[in-house]
């Protein structure tokens, strides 16, 4: 049986915790919020390609010039920052893969058993906040929704399975919104990985990438049509985001190969071509400094940093679980641990500095209290959390890094 068939279970996931699958009486008249992510959808794709559904959504609400991701510009840290309003140094998901500083275990994004362990996830993600306040939530994929965080999961959730057709995901969201008011989820997450996957493989602007952009846009159109038919459609908000953008390598760029001039024994390396994160098996500050200096002495298209000296806009420090040495190429340049790793250099990629505009994603928000057709400037993704809490009419009681007023001021009075 396909994993998607297991997910929309009729038995609430939080029996004894959270909402217990039933909205508290005081929550039943609250608005509904759908948080949608199109992975890897760059800030300018909407203008470069035909996206009638995104245009329709933007005309109904607020669109940002771009959505700046957190460092590192990878899928797992950014999705969880959107969900918590925290930088990775505070919520703990500092990369897609990273070691536990207190054990020999590793968080690895492709290990389902690991990503379902709540111990890795700090902060209070939006679905936990909703459930803790007696509000039913549902997730058709989102980083962290498979884990017991503070002992709570969304009432309805799915194990990630890329084979689940996008149309089924949309259909399930509409079914959730058609449930009786007592059990109808007020918060729903929805995730599409298709643009990211095809752009990695074929490159930005490729026929395959553009086809996926148009296809996901059609799914969004189906969702909007379905929402418009609901009797409570005027109570539904949509926030559409992406975790990061995409770009490519300079064809003439020489890729830095670390093993050509470094001894990498005793170092675990997490790499993606656009970055290399060096975790020392045993802490050795002197060796870390030497490796940093050796890289910077020969490299003119990037830089190596110790975690505690990294740029301020990365919002990290030496005690936050980040690598001992961060090797960060300049935009369009790359780094690998060895020559045999050239296969990781995808035609389309991300992981460069978050200030590089190609790494920026999209932000569109529409709903009854938001203005129509308004354009705002660049925003950070940690600023979305307070807006979601305000839409759901839940008090913000946990510490966040986002600006509580950055987006909430857009909401008209109730």
Describe the structure.
- With 414 residues, the chain is an alpha/beta fold.
- It has 2 domains: 3-248 and 355-410, Alkaline Phosphatase, subunit A (3-Layer(aba) Sandwich), CATH 3.40.720; 256-344, 2-Layer Sandwich (Gyrase A, domain 2), CATH 3.30.1360.180.
- Helices cover 26% and strands 17% of the residues.
- It contains 12 helices and 18 strands.
- The chain has helices at 3-7, 45-48, 52-60, 75-84, 88-91, 112-115, 126-132, 166-177, 194-202, 207-228, 285-298, 384-391; strands spanning 32-38, 62-64, 67-68, 97-99, 106-108, 137-140, 156-157, 187-192, 236-241, 256-257, 267-271, 276-280, 302-306, 325-329, 335-336, 363-366, 374-376, 379-380.
- The strands form 5 sheets. An 8-stranded mixed beta sheet has the order 7-6-8-1-9-16-2-17, sandwiched between helices. Strands 11-12-14-13 form a 4-stranded antiparallel beta sheet, covered by helices on one side.
- A hairpin with a 6-residue loop joins strand 4 (97-99) and strand 5 (106-108).
- Helix 3 (52-60) crosses helix 10, helix 8 packs parallel to helix 10 (207-228) and helix 9 (194-202) packs antiparallel against helix 10 (207-228).
- 51% of the residues are buried.
Describe the secondary structure blueprint for this structure:
Layout: H1 3-7, E1 32-38, H2 45-48, H3 52-60, E2 62-64, E3 67-68, H4 75-84, H5 88-91, E4 97-99, E5 106-108, H6 112-115, H7 126-132, E6 137-140, E7 156-157, H8 166-177, E8 187-192, H9 194-202, H10 207-228, E9 236-241, E10 256-257, E11 267-271, E12 276-280, H11 285-298, E13 302-306, E14 325-329, E15 335-336, E16 363-366, E17 374-376, E18 379-380, H12 384-391
Parallel strand pairs: 1-8, 1-9, 2-17, 3-18, 6-7, 6-8, 10-15
Antiparallel strand pairs: 2-16, 4-5, 9-16, 11-12, 12-14, 13-14
Helix pairs in contact: 3-10, 8-10, 9-10
